[in-house]
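User: I'm writing a tutorial on reading structure tokens. Could you give me a worked example: one chain, its sequence, then its tokens, then a sentence or two explaining what the tokens reveal?
Assistant: Sure. Here is the example chain.
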Amino acid sequence: MVAPRHPSAHAGTGLLPAPRPLEYRNLICTAVIARKPDRIAEQIGKAVKKGNNEAGDEGKIVCGSRSRMLMALDGVRALVFDVFGTVVDWRSGVAREVEPFLKRHGAGSAIPAAFTDAWRRRYSPAMEEVRSGRRPFTRLDVLHRENLEAVLPEFGIDPALVPASELDELNLAWHRLEPWPDVVAGLARLRAHYIIAPLSNGNIALMLNMAKRSRIPWDAILGAEVVQAYKPAPEAYLRTADVLAMKPDEICLVAAHNGDLAAARACGLRTAFVPRPTEHGVAQATDLHPDQAWDLVASDFIDLAERLQL
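And here are its predicted structure tokens:
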């Protein structure tokens, strides 16, 4: 950005009143934050008209803080998002569909959330079979379906006695998960300045169905099936950068999981932590706070947009 001329440059010309020194510093800071010519002009016009009598040191402190937030993602062109837990509330969504299934099959006394947690516990071990090379890449829908059959006996249900079509339908609960309340509005704001896409272990059809159902405004569908690698394997992050034709540091991963962010940072991506303190229920004890000094920390997606002046 071209630096503004000294505040005395227009004095006496009738164009604009000459700003005082404090006001001049505030105008420069406002311009750096806005980064857009029309925003810069608007902010400078308002500041000149109002004067700096009300600004004082407090205004400079806020401005400096916001500048640092923007600088944290300086050069970033794309935001990619973890999905399960960060974008959508998987536990509540799956439990809601599990409940009638359990009642139909004589396990109505079982707690739907407990069944959901047991199903989810098989998620990472199943992907590890792929990450380790012991199994070729297999999309998550298949892994979820296998895990469903494996967990049924824990709740007294014989999978052989359940029609395959019914298991298939329950497996699609993962396609029908609801986003957290801030997600759609927050993503719409972030999309105005950045390319946004999922970087999820979910497969393409799952991500598409979820997005269409809840109007999640992705620019593209990326993730494990696209790059044939499950997070947190480095290939999941590096191949995503390659698909986008970007350097890793031009991409920021937004996630509610410190481990995911740590793996992304190790590959050169920028990082933003958005906690989801009830992802695992009200007694959740993990990922409540940032474990490292991530590039940005926000309370939700709307707050993230606010911090990025969007």
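What the tokens reveal: Residues 1-64 have pLDDT under 50 and may be disordered. The beta strands are 78-81, 195-200, 222-223, 251-255, 270-273, 296-297.
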